[in-house]
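Wed. Picked up where I left off yesterday with ATL1 protein. The coffee machine is broken again, so keeping this brief.
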Amino acid sequence: GVPEAEVTWFKNKIKLPSSHHLRDGLLLIANVSLSDQGLYSCKAANLRGEVTESSQLLVLEPPRPLLYLEDLTAVLSGTGTSTRSVLTSPSGTTVTVSPGSSALIGCAVDGHPTPNITWLYSGKPLSLRHHLLAAGRILQILNVSDAPDGEFSCLAENEAGSLTQKTSLAIQEYRWSVDKTMACSASCGHKGVQLPQLRCLLDGAEVNISHCKEKPKPALQPIACNRRDCPSRWMVTSWSPCTRSCGGGTQMRRVTCQRLTAKGSSVPMLNEACAQVSKRPVDSQNCNRQPCVEWVASSWGQCNGPCIGPRLAVQHRQIFCQTKDGISVSSDQCSALPRPLSTQNCWTDVCGVHWRVSLWTVCTATCGNYGFQSRRVDCVHVRTNKPVLDHHCSWRPRPANWQRCNITPCENGMFPRGGEELWGWGRGRKEGRPVSQKCSTRPC
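Structure written out below (tokens, as returned):
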């Protein structure tokens, strides 16, 4: 255009920074990724007008393998942990499953646009019973016994290319084995037993016992073992309660020498018989050696705070943890004891106030609607009865200091005391006699 047009570039109708622009109206996108996909528009404008042209950029990615498949995890959580699962791979994977069970095979691929997936068995379309889940990304084999041999494969295709991944199912059967026994439960006495040891085998190799949990367990018969007299040994009772809760106490227990026979009875023995085997346990020990402590509080401080209501002022005191001897220690040592309050509400002397009212004055009128009377209202101290500033009583309702009174109709020809009379000449009246009216009866 003449004059030369100014070119502006947009992506999805959003203006691009000038750093993307090149000369002669060209836009260069280096190292293209999926985030660059969209509708690109260029607008050329000069003094004579403008024109806009657009082009859609579609980024293609050929199918590629993924390390995991979130859809497979979601399906497994709904079908139960007994369902075996496997992901296909370009080199092929293998999973061992039990006869008659179901299996999930995931085709973990990605690409742009999303690849179309075709499942094959031994290179041919599927003919056994199956379900396709997660938009064809997961193949569910309902009975793995229908596919004793062969290889499953998934073919992923889009406009950018294709990818084939494979997996194989190995059908094995787990079984219980009881060819070994567990260690004896006791070395002597009358309670020693040993049980056959259950093992889960797969083709003669021991595997995790969870693989056999769906198989019926064989009956296990306990076998008596080590049924003989035990050597003499020291027998101890439980420790008695400590004689003191703090400051060092003592607790006791009983120590005897006994022998447990093969028939299950305990026979008392001389202490020398046990002393040859082991050292005699102690029958007393010190306990609760921590020092006795207590919370100690100082006297309450001055009562301070705003006088806006009863008991709204605050006073403080110091709380210490110390031993019975008066030695201060860390507060942690008193943590098991109830801690006294360090702050409390209080009533200050200045808050002991109330409103004091005087008697009402005589009404300013004997009748009518304009009489009033007043009285004095003061905030005074309860103890001294001396006036204080009104704001000290502000938390109590202030009594009224004036009111209307004698609000009764006046008889004809009478005026209320306290009113004023206005005399004048009647207008429009031939006799010219004086007339009167009430005025200015407001309280002064």
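Quick read: Residues 293-349 form one domain.
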